[in-house]
Amino acid sequence: MRGAAAAALPELTAQYRDYVGYQRALLDGGELLDWWTGYLSGAPDLLTVPGDRPRPTVRGIAGATRVFQLPAALMADVAALGGRMRMSPFMVLLGAYSALLGRLTGAADLLVGMPVTDRPEPEFEPLIGLFVDTLPVRVRTSAGQTFGSVLEGVRRSALDVLSHQGVSFDQLVERVRPDRLPSHTPLVQVAFSADLAPMARPRFADLSAELRLPEPTTAKFDLDLSINAASDGRRLCRGAQLQHRAVRPGHRRPLRGAVRPLPDRRCGPELPLHALPLLGERERALILDEWSRPEPVSGAEERVHEMFAARPPPRPRPRQ
User: Do 273 and 146 meet the contact criterion of CB atoms below 8 Å apart?
Assistant: First the structure.
């Protein structure tokens, strides 16, 4: 384009209509949708994440995004734990996020939305378009489980979902028919994604450019946690929250808590789920020590009746 020369692109071996035909053939017979019906049978329709305000009767899209950096030591712990449990770092992070949601909500069964790329055949790779959909991952988080058993359950459930992709989120909602209320999204109210490969730096002739991750002021779910690798290798944790959840300036505890079980050395795979800490050392000291420190109360030597006697009598209100 810079030299006004025509771009030499290879001929496409498939078009979008071929992809549509592939999807329709995949759904013929109904076996795929039957599997999803059984997978989601009995799953809860709503996961209520604790928020600052009650859930409105009609859901909006106004939200906020919080961004913070994950320490390199934490990501090393994630990789080490995944190696011991034969899991990818993505599944370890998804398991920690699910464990936090189970602790915060008290739910023993929950659904987490996971974006999946649906380009099943090599000929669909060069096609232009967003071939991504959201599928629910079902996670058991009962109080009797350990952190390790939650991670193993996440691995099995995520692999089942990935082996049965090819169905859209809208088709799932139409088939499963969950309770539809205008106050929340159907099937999933929380989502998780992670792209741990560093982003490539853009390179153009006679032009300098850099990648910047957006911080949208809207949210698609009650809580949407995303972990991305910047071009310099840093891991950035980004969370979008709806306004009725918890989006005060600087309020990042629900997001930082998503990785709370990982850096804490007390949180091994054998630790019971109900014992996973929700507070960091600084937060725990703030609540138990600083805020609970006894302070002398002014006038404590006075008796109650003496305090009433010292108060001037109210002035009578004039009649109208």
Answer: yes
Q: How many domains does the chain have?
A: 1
Strand partners, 132: 117
Query: At which residue do the structure tokens 């915060």 appear?
Result: 104
Q: Considering the entire predicted model, what is its pTM?
A: 0.80
Tell me whether residue 86 is in a domain. Answer: yes
**Is 116 inside any structural domain?**
yes
172: CATH = 3.30.559.30
For residue 95, what are the domain limits?
73-192+249-268
CA 65 to CA 239: how far, in whole Å?
Answer: 5
Evaluate whether 158 touches 87 at the Cβ level (below 8 Å).
no
Q: Is residue 18 part of a domain?
A: no
DSSP 26-39: HHTTSHHHHHHHHH
Neighbouring residues of 244: CB distance < 8 A, sequence distance ≥ 6: 51, 52, 53, 54, 55, 56
Measured torsion, CA atoms of residues 45, 100, 217, 230, in degrees rounded to the nearest 10: -130
Q: Which residue has the tokens 């692999």?
A: 159
**pLDDT tens track for 106-142:** 999 999 999 998 888 888 888 888 888 999 999 999 8
Query: By three-state DSSP, how is residue 3 classified?
Result: coil
Task: Give a yes or no: residue 5 inside a domain.
Answer: no
Cβ proximity of 241 and 251 under 8 Å: no
